[in-house]
Amino acid sequence: MTTSVTWRASVLGSQLAELLRRPARTLTTGSSVLVAAFVVFATVMAQQITENTARAHFRGTPAAVSLVVTDTDASIGGAALRRIRALPGVAEVAARADAGAPVSGGLSQNYLHLRADPGTGPLSRVRLVEGSYPDGPGRIAVNRPAAEELRLAPGRRITLLFPDPRNPEKTIRSTLTVTGVVSAATNADRDAAGYATGQNILRVAALSGYSRLDVRAVNGADSQEIARRVRDVLRTPSPHALVRSGDTIRAAEARAALAQYREIFQLIAVFLAVAVGAAALVATSAFRIVFAQRLRQLALLRAIGAQRRQLVTALVAEGALAGATAGTLGVLAAWGAGHLAPPAARAAGQDLAAPGLPVAQAALVIAGAALVTVGAVLAPARSASRVPPLQALRAAATVTAEHRLHPARPATGLFLAVTALGLVALLLSDLPRPGAGGYERDVTALLVTVASAALAFLALITLGPLLVRPVLAVAGWPLRKLGTTGRLAVGVVGGAPRRAAAVSVVVALGVALVGGALVAVACLGGYTDRKLAVEAPADFRVTDAEGFPPALVRRLAASPRLSDVLAYRTLDITVGPTEQTVSDLDLRALPTARDIGTATGSLRALRPGEVVVAAVSADDLGVRAGDTVSVPAAHGRLRLTVAATLAGDGPVGAGLFVTPADLGRLGAADRPTGILADASSDGLAARGEARRALEAAVAAQVPDADAAGLDVPAELRDVTLGDIRLVGTVALGLVGLTVLIAVVGVVTTTSLTAVERTREFGLLRALGLGRGALRRTVAAEAALYGALGGILGLALGVPYAWLAVRLAVAPAPLLLPAGRLLAVFATLTAVAALAGLLPARRAGRATPMAALGDTD
């Protein structure tokens, strides 16, 4: 027993000595794990920064608040407030109330929120940035959004429209003077808001009481005793009031602030799992190459009595040490980057909170890195431990070509591929048609899609060595035309299919994710364009049920601030059992006409007696292009032929679109009830000028301008397109982690094989191949890894992205961003070639005499 333990220790010691003798090899084999550990712990640091920033900036309760009194009935009156302020131990009380009212004088009916705040002191939520805080009735301070949207500044006056308590159909006009501009740190302060003391807010909004009191206790006072006395005061006037500690409220606000980030970090966790899996694949390939280089050493150990189990144990211990080392370096690098982020953000004008030192998470990441590396090293270690003792008499460079695929591998790969295709066929059989109504996203179908994609990727891993040469026949064709260098590169990659597959599969994973993200974003972008073509057909939309004078339309059309001015009429009619809105809006004249999709027929110039029907109305009426619709007219009924049905809703809320003459026959008045217009140029400044020109024209031409409504669909368009761009950027950033690890894999594999093939390089030099040609050969091999992975990745990622998009958003068009996909393929191939430059330089240093040496 003692001899066995001693022998095992000596085998382990010899392997660890080899590890320490060549630390560069250790870092090379663990480079992918180092990158993965850095990314994972950097995410931990980012989450801490986000949480600490949210807690610091998005809480609505100041830190000085000891007790919070809330009343949903807003029944806390002035008498109760005075009694609470007089309680022993109470230092200060801030009375709060919320209200709001439309702003007079704007077509868009701007709304101003009203919030009570003391304005100064430790209980204030706002900070004065300009002017003074209101100190009397008829005065108000506004926040930055209100100042910008309503063009308010100290000294300006604003009129609010409050409902008359005695007659709700009437309004009371309350004119207030703006005394200052404030800044608030709460998340709710994104809307236009006005601030004043609690008493003034009650007076302006005609409120009966306060909805919340913030109580600050004297230092050293018993908060629980104060809370009991406050309850006693409010028991009769406000029986539903709740008294809670400030800490409790602040904790709840912090949880609410962080809730919006929880789903984001859950999504990031999914991509991190993929990145860690890619790192494991790269590490497996790296250890396989390293162990192949050391087969003579392992064979010598076998020859002097080492058992297979002892070799596996020693090699696994070596992998665990390499993984722990790489994990530690990755964690330290991420920790440093996390603490550098807040100063860098402050230099850029952003305020980020500093992260802490999450020791437990750091230990878990390091342990996880070691476990991932152990998992990656097991298969190569078992394979290397089978080396026979006679292998000590051979050259290590002859070993890698002697491995043959197990007969069960192709069968397993085909089974996985057939299963994945079977799941796809099942999903396609129940796929909704484009434009189908009433379709709801099926989460189960999306999960089945993910499972099918995972099986397909496992099939790619299993069948990879068999796919290398057929794909290489296509991908390697341009290199063969480059002469000896290209032919050598293709021959080397094709001569080691297992090694090429191991690297290319990781690249394929990255390309599949990036390509799938690009396809998904393109499809969702197309869907968004179609949706916005209906919901936001113009920058501005003015409506008035009484109709606009024709002179207004002419004035707007002549304005240099506006373009694409289009007037239209609408009319509500009954068609069969349904109520329908009919309009004479010319769909083809809209700037967004090219994005309005049709389910049947096509958009063309309508003739009298024809109609275009929106999707919902077409379903209600059961019609398609070529059918007829009978609608009630002023004299009898009018039969209309359906020229087209839309793939979605119709613009301006209409379901039927006819010619102006036909709308007149249906009984519509002559005056247009709506006007669409665009700003004459892009940009927020131009849009603001166009809006003011539009409001001025309506105010001058329409007697009751307050009855007209102004919508700004361009704001919806900006928000929606911004969200799409943000989602696309985040998605590409996350999947880029996998691409980064794939590039590390190319560097690792090319570097290790450069060491393995020293004799081969020396022989090529002896046969007359120059240093430059040899470097180009190695770089071309690395480029081939990228090209192989790119082809396999696009073949896997694009179809599954299409399938996922159709399952998630049935009306989305299936688009192929060919230019971007080609750019991704070319870029990754070029990056892979650049990744091979460092190993290529090492290969170029080989001399003809190296052909007589040995790799060990």
Please provide a written account of the structure:
By secondary structure, this protein is of the alpha+beta class. Helix content is 56%, strand content 15%. Strands 3, 4, 5, 6, 7, 8 and 9 form a 7-stranded mixed β-sheet that branches. Strands 14, 15, 16, 17, 18, 19 and 20 form a 7-stranded mixed β-sheet that branches. Strands 2-10-1-11 form a 4-stranded antiparallel β-sheet. A hairpin with an 8-residue loop joins strand 3 (98-102) and strand 4 (111-116). Helix 8 runs antiparallel to helix 16, helix 21 (713-756) packs antiparallel against helix 23 and helix 21 (713-756) packs parallel to helix 24. The chain is globular. Residues 1-9 and 395-403 have low confidence and may be disordered.
